[in-house]
Amino acid sequence: MLAVGKNKIVTSSDKKKGKAESIDGHVGNQIRQRRALMGMTQEHLADSVGITFQQIQKYENGANRVSAGRLFEFSKILGVPVSFFFENFIPGADGKKHALLSGLSDSGQSKFEGPDNVMDLKETTELVRVYYSIQDPKLRKNLFNFLKTMAESLKEQDGK
Question: What is the mean pLDDT of the chain?
Answer without folding.
Answer: 79
